[in-house]
């Protein structure tokens, strides 16, 4: 259920942002527009990564933190693929016991290993390496989703 909810939220967010934003604030994360829908992309990540469903919630929190740090950050068709992948990957590495290599994450996301390594570092710096999420914050986001 959380996968379907997150997929719908991602599609809605990308659609709404597309009207007034391109990649100006996050050029590092821009790339070719994916050939699959945001919903199919969420499903792909969850199917092949083995990430726990709570990683979707934590990933959403990380994306919200990016937005809070830079209000000009929008998820668009040009960047959602990389940003969402990095958010879930980072959450999975922080939370899950199951290890997935960056090589596998790159294959799941349809980008190169070199690119995912660079994006991971940029993502962590943009979050100031603040990955811990309080239980109350997690519960609030989970309820909202």
Automatic annotation (TrEMBL):
GO molecular function, one term: protein kinase binding
Keywords assigned by UniProt, alphabetized: Cyclin
Coiled coil: none
Keyword NADP carried by entry: no
Highest taxon listed in the record's lineage: Eukaryota
A Pfam family it matches: Cyclin
Keyword Translocase: no
Xref: InterPro entries: Cyclin-like_sf, Cyclin_P/U, Cyclin_PHO80-like
Entry-linked PANTHER family: PROTEIN CNPPD1, PTHR15615
Protein name, per record: Cyclin
Source organism: Guillardia theta (strain CCMP2712)
């Amino acid at each position: 259920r959380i996968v379907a909810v997150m997929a719908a939220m991602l599609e809605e967010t990308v659609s709404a942002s597309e009207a007034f934003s391109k990649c100006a604030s996050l050029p590092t994360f821009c790339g070719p527009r994916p050939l699959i829908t945001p919903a199919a992309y969420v499903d792909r990540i969850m199917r092949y990564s083995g990430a726990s469903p709570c990683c979707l919630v934590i990933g959403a929190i990380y994306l919200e933190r990016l937005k809070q740090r830079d209000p000009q950050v929008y998820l668009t068709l040009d960047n959602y693929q990389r940003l969402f992948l990095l958010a879930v990957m980072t959450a999975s590495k922080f939370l899950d016991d199951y290890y997935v290599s960056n090589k596998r994450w790159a294959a799941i996301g349809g980008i190169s290993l070199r690119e995912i390594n660079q994006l991971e570092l940029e993502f962590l710096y943009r979050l100031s390496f603040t990955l811990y999420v309080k239980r109350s914050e997690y519960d609030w986001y989970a309820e909202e989703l």
